[in-house]
Design a protein that fits this description.
9 helices, mainly alpha
Length: 189
């Protein structure tokens, strides 16, 4: 007989994601996950199978949340302004210490060939593709080299703001990172 689940799986994933986001995969214990979710080890294993499977669900949810904010054909210059303004504003919040789960995961699993590394890289690639899509709509002359260069600048700025804002809540500093990346597009925040 199958046991009825009496908790919200999506809420458990969100709570577990917060732990993984701050501590990383390797530094997160089952005890940490039990404390964060309020569930017993058996419930976590019965529902998700393993710590790795729960982590993969967290990455999937994070990717889904990120992609909900991806460019969808609105004014590309406005999209980039709002995107970077959001990163700077969130980064300046005192409670914001997590950085970016995609970057955290890529850094933790860099060079690995396991599923966690592959999923992290896939999320990174999706973010890169999002910037490329915005740039293709923004720039009238589709110079491949310039598109590539700007994609690199935007993704570098986005992840830099996320990582630096873990320890430096300086709005002027974070805005300058964004504005340096946006300069060649004649956009500023």
């Amino acid at each position: 007989m199958t046991r009825k689940i009496d908790f919200d799986i999506d809420e458990v994933i969100k709570m577990a994601m917060d732990v993984f986001w701050v501590k990383g995969y390797e530094n997160t214990s089952m005890k940490d996950l039990m404390e964060a979710t309020g569930l017993l080890k058996g419930s976590l294993y019965n529902t998700f199978g393993s710590k790795e499977e729960l982590y993969l669900k967290c990455l999937e949810q994070y990717g889904h949340n990120s992609q909900a904010r991806f460019y969808n054909g609105q004014n590309p210059a406005d999209y980039l302004k709002k995107f970077f303004q959001r990163l700077v504003n969130e980064g300046c919040e005192k409670s914001y210490i997590k950085g970016c789960l995609i970057m955290n995961s890529c850094l933790e699993f860099g060079g690995s060939e396991d599923l966690k590394a592959k999923r992290s890289t896939k999320l990174f690639d999706a973010t890169e593709s999002n910037f490329k899509k915005v740039l293709l709509d923004l720039i009238s002359e589709k110079d491949d080299e310039f598109i590539h260069e700007m994609t690199v600048k935007l993704i570098t700025a986005a992840f830099s703001i996320r990582e630096i804002s873990k320890f430096r809540k300086d709005k002027k500093f974070l805005k300058q990172i964004a504005n340096n990346a946006l300069l060649d597009l004649d956009i500023s925040i």
